[in-house]
Amino acid sequence: MMGCTRTLWFLVFTGAAIHFMVRMNMNIAIVAMVKKHYRNASVISNECITNESSEFKYEKKYSKDYFIGTNEVYDWDEHQQNLILGAVNWIYPLAQLPGGLLGHHYGTKLVFGINTLIMSVLGFVIPLSAATDFRILIAIRLLQGILAGLSWPSLHNLTASWVPPKERSNFVTSYNGNSIGVAVVFSLGGLTINQLGWEAMFHIPGILGLIWFIVWWFVVYDTPQKHPRISDTELKYIEQELGPTLALKKPPTPWKDILKSLPFWINVFALWGDMWGLNTLMTQAPTYFKVIHGWNIFMTGVLSGVPYICRVIFSYTFSLLADCLLKRCSVSHTRVRKIATFVCCIVQGIFIYGIALSGCDSIAAIVCITAATITNGASSSGPFASFVDLSPNFASILMGISGMVCFTPAFLSPILVSELTYKNQTIGQWNLIFIIVASLTALPGVIHLFFSTSKLQKWNSCQESTNHNHANDQNNEERKTEDSNDQIDIRL
Q1: Are 341 and 382 in contact (CB under 8 A)?
Q2: Contacts of 450 (CB under 8 A, 6+ apart)
Q3: Do the Cβ atoms of 337 and 317 come closer than 8 Å?
Q4: What is the distance between the alpha carbons of residues 140 and 87, in angstroms, rounded to a whole number?
Q5: CA 338 to centroid of chain Cα atoms
Q6: 263 and 455 in contact (C-beta within 8 Å)?
């Protein structure tokens, strides 16, 4: 990547981090926002806790003065707390397709930038809404989730307009800024609340979001041709590499062809499986460590946050390998995306299954959860990048449609966990959860491995004379490097 594209990568990365700080900060802040209700030990398993009272003593010792910066606490019951935590995901999947359409027609600069700004500003209102009525707080969280859903698919429009095909794996790693956002919230949340109060968990991301938006608005442009400071060398390189696959004027959306495209739906299914693993680990790992292994909030926060930093490092490193295979080894896009999906779905599923086998061995559980989270980072070189391979012109729309399906695990996973562990927080039930999630994660990867393709689709453009010829040339080049199983253009 050259100068302007690398700057764009950094701003997408930091923007994604802020997005997830805004979405996840309530998960740690609510611990300090509500009055302490000690758990009913009669429904909690102590199979793996060698000193059953150790956690209670720790909490009793520090519960009075740990959150010294907090002035307001609220008497919300478990039902109200779950409503507050879950509201951000209620409409998030449904907002994906409208977000993709907005990005397609109005550009990523406006859609991603403005939505991130409003999400950040709403964070300043959360402390006041919590003091007024928890239902107002739920409404704000719901609105933040809608804005986040509208924002995310629009990023693919920017990727398609700026990034050559053989550099997409590396650029899409910028989306993994979300992992840094999660890691910061989990790892530093307790310290921040201790020093500044729980209100700071909403004010700090709000301030960061405002600063980020100012830089974004004056630095980012939707296409290289609009950028006033891009060098002639970089502009020429991008235009030459993208070629005629990307129309200067957006053609009509081929809805029928998209919805009938088997390669597209196989890719959606793979990403759906990948998200099952990630969302379960992201939302349930803290509870699992606390309830099953009896760890305190400090250790739980650190062990829940560190894997996401490792995930970013792995994702970036893996993307360099993927792009190297495309550039220097002439490996086809289909083959590279299959390798990446094998790692982020099948290998991740194996490690999640390993959690179920770890039993009371907390070290083995840490290793498996960390490894599962890390291998999930290969998704940026797999399903995410494949959407742009299939259709650069409609990448944000493809991402929007897939998001309506693929982000459903964000609220399905908590339902699964709550149903299996309600008044039955035992290691056996948690093992069952991890076995189910491992299967849901790995199976789509197996199907993708045998039946997927990342070839440029003919419906990418309506301009038969130019773009179809280029699509055929690219697909012919792909066929030279693929096995016979990959040579079939799979369609309904």
Answers
A1: yes
A2: 485
A3: no
A4: 9
A5: 19
A6: yes
Cα gap 405→93, rounded to integer Å: 7
Distance of CA 19 to the CA centre of its chain: 10
Q: Which residues, 6+ apart, have CB-to-CB distance to 443 below 8 Å?
A: 273, 349
Q: What six digits make up the tokens of 44?
A: 């909690």
User: Residue-wise over 426-449: b if at least 16 C-beta within 10 A, else e?
Assistant: bbebbbebbebbbebbbbbbbebb
Greatest CA span in the chain, whole angstroms?
Answer: 75
Q: What is the pLDDT of residues 315-343, one digit of tens each?
A: 999 999 999 999 888 899 999 999 999 99
Structure tokens at 150: 């509208």
**Predicted structure pTM score:** 0.78
Nearest to 293, CA basis, from 31, 16, 8, 47:
47
DSSP at 91: S
Structure tokens, 444 = 């789509």
pLDDT at 72 over 60: yes
What b/e readout covers 11-36, taking b as 16+ CB neighbours within 10 angstroms? bbbbbbbbbbbbbbbbbbbbbbbbee
Contact indicator for 73, 32 with CB cutoff of 8 Å: yes
Position of tokens 């690219």?
474
> With bands split at pLDDT 50, 70 and 90, how would you rate the model's confidence at 300?
low
Tokens encoding 85: 């935590």
Angstrom distance (rounded) from CA 370 to CA 121: 33
Residue pair 306/183 in contact by the 8 Å Cβ criterion:
yes
DSSP string, 384-445: HHHHHHH-GGGHHHHHHHHHHHHTTHHHHHHHHHHHHHTT-B-HHHHHHHHHHHHHHHHHHH
Cα–Cα distance, 209 to 230 (Å, whole number): 25
Determine the 3-state secondary structure of 45 from DSSP: coil
Question: What Å distances lie between residue 112 and 45, 155, 402, 468, CA to CA?
Answer: 45, 7, 18, 31
Q: Report how far residue 437's alpha carbon sits from residue 475's, in angstroms, rounded to the nearest whole number.
A: 35
Residue showing tokens 């926060």 = 301
What CA–CA distance (Å, rounded) separates 297 from 63? 11
What is the tens place of the pLDDT at every residue in 406-434? 988 887 887 888 788 877 888 999 999 99
Return the residue matching tokens 């199979």: 47
Cβ proximity of 241 and 165 under 8 Å: yes
Q: Which amino acid makes up residue 327? A: K
